Amino acid sequence: MTSHAASHAVATSAPVAVPAHEAPAPSRKNLPWSFRQNAVVRALICVVSGIVVGVCGTLVHRLGAQYNVPIGLLLAFLILVIATWSARARSGIVGLALHLMFSTSVAGFFANFMGDILLPMGFYSTTLSFFSQYVGWLWLGGLIVIPVIFVFFPERWFDINATKKTKAKDRGKMAHGSKETDDVVNARDADNSVDSEVTGDSNKIDNTKEPAESGQSEALVGAGDSINTIESNDSDNAAAAIGVDGSASADSSESDGDKPVEEV
Predict the structure, then answer these.
(1) DSSP assigned state of 240
(2) In the chain, how many domains are there?
(3) pLDDT of 80-138, one tens digit each?
(4) Which of these, 6, 143, 169, 228, has the minimum number of CB atoms within 10 Å of its CB?
(5) Which own/partner pairs from 11-15 qualify as long-range (CB within 8 Å, at least 24 positions apart)?
(6) Domain annotation covers residue 117
(7) How far is CA 232 from CA 6, 172, 229, 235, 244, in A?
(8) Are the CB atoms for 3 and 184 separated by under 8 Å?
């Protein structure tokens, strides 16, 4: 009875899962600062981000090129990828287009007015390494190709809200599973406690029966001894009575023998 009640309590205490379409939308307060602004401010942030990427990438893209180790180019592409993803996630295709326009404009400005220093291109030399000759072309091409590739990526890859929903759902599943585990453990402990109580009660009943049965057996043994004692006393009394009767008959016979025989 108690085990059934415990299992029923576990079944009724399990939390009810909320459908995904009924779950509340995440608050914008949890998003990064640039994602919480209105559309105009977000677009301006994409413009500034494109300018910064164009300047920083152009300044660092030739690092290590003279040794044929394009460390600067990889660093410039890393900055470009992060900024492009942020622009697409922040303002969609519009933000990505603004970022592309201003980053390439800044790089083109350096190539046209400071090409001999920052973006040397259009020359061939047998004494220079491959990246020393072509790293500028690779950087300008990457500025255009990488944002265009990001246009064809699915929208869910740039949805921060979906990422937060997925993490919240995983945490909810973990909490739900741990709660169910705790309920099962509690129900098992309740069953064990009930079994222990039943076993203790049965042991108490057995311990109570054993002294009673031993007392009854001792009483029966005492009654049997009393009966045997009475029987032995009766037999002794009967023997004593027989002895008395025998002595009386002997005395009477002796007295009869002593009497004189009357003459006929």
Answers:
(1) H
(2) 1
(3) 999 999 999 999 999 999 999 999 999 999 888 876 677 777 677 778 888 988 999 99
(4) 228
(5) 13/183, 14/179, 14/180, 14/183, 15/176, 15/179
(6) yes
(7) 67, 90, 5, 5, 18
(8) no
**Type of residue found at 212:** A
Q: For 159, which DSSP code? A: -
Does 185 reside within a domain?
Answer: no
pLDDT of residue 95: 96
CA distances from 83 to 44, 45, 56, 100, 103 (A): 14, 11, 12, 10, 10
The pair phi, psi for residue 125, each rounded to 5°, is: -150, 140
Of the candidates 190, 197, 176, 195, the residue with the CA atom closest to the CA atom of residue 6: 190
| Residue 98 included in any domain | yes
What values do phi and psi take at 36, rounded to 5?
-90, -5
Inside any domain, residue 35: yes
Query: What's this model's pTM, rounded to 2 decimal places?
Result: 0.54
How far apart, in whole angstroms, are the C-alpha atoms of residue 49 and residue 87?
8
Using DSSP, state whether 255 is helix, strand or coil: helix
Token code pair at residue 19: 């459908």
User: Which residues form the domain of 112?
Assistant: 29-158
The pLDDT, as a whole number, for residue 119 is 78
pLDDT value, residue 11: 47
Distances 71 to 64, 126, 192 between C-alpha atoms, Å: 6, 22, 66
Burial of 197 (0-12, 13-18, 19+ CB in 10 A): exposed
3-state SS, residue 123: coil
What is the arithmetic mean of pLDDT over 165-177?
A: 56
What digits encode the pLDDT tens for the residues 183-224?
Answer: 665 767 666 665 666 566 555 555 555 555 555 555 555 555
Residue 246 has which token pair? Answer: 């025998």
